[in-house]
Amino acid sequence: QELLKSEQDAREEDAFAFENEKQSLEASTTIHVALLKEEHEDALQQLKEENRDLLDDVERMKSSFTAQVEEISRLNCKNEELKDELGRTKTSFEAQMKEINMQRRQKKDLISQVEKLMMSYD
């Protein structure tokens, strides 16, 4: 009887110790999970902030790129205008050179005629 009582007491102590250990592990696990959750939430928040910063950077770069594209487009238009103006200037210059050359020939012809006239008077 006493042996049974002793075994019963030992089982109850084991069950009590097991229950205490179980509760201790559950409490420890709960604390550990809460800490991990907090760390993950902090890390997630930091990633969200970094992501926002990166998106802001991308938006700034996009705006800068768009402005540069617009400036390049404006400069290309100006370049085309200058090419057209250069073409007109070249055409005008060539016409003026033809006129100058024609006047030079006429001048030579006149000088030649004047020389012939002067010789005929001699």
Task: Describe the secondary structure blueprint for this structure.
Blueprint: H1 2-121
How would you sum up this structure in a few lines?
The protein has one helix at 2-121. It has 122 residues and is mainly α.
For this entry, give a set of tags.
122 residues; 0% strand; rod-shaped; 1 helix; mainly alpha
Question: Overview of this structure, please?
Answer:
The chain is mainly alpha-helical. It is 98% helix and 0% strand. The chain has one helix and no strands. The radius of gyration is 51 Å and the shape is rod-shaped. The N and C termini lie far apart (174 Å).
The fraction of residues assigned to DSSP E strands is under 5%
Q: Can you tell me the residue ranges where pLDDT is under 50 for at least 5 consecutive residues?
A: none
Q: What oligomeric assembly is this protein in? A: single chain
Instruction: Please give the largest β-sheet.
Output: none
For the secondary structure, the number of strands is 0
Number of helices: 1
Global shape: rod-shaped
What share of the residues lie within helices? over 70%
- The pLDDT mean sits at 95
Radius of gyration: 51 Å
Structural class: mainly alpha
Distance between the termini: 174 Å
Run of helices and strands: H
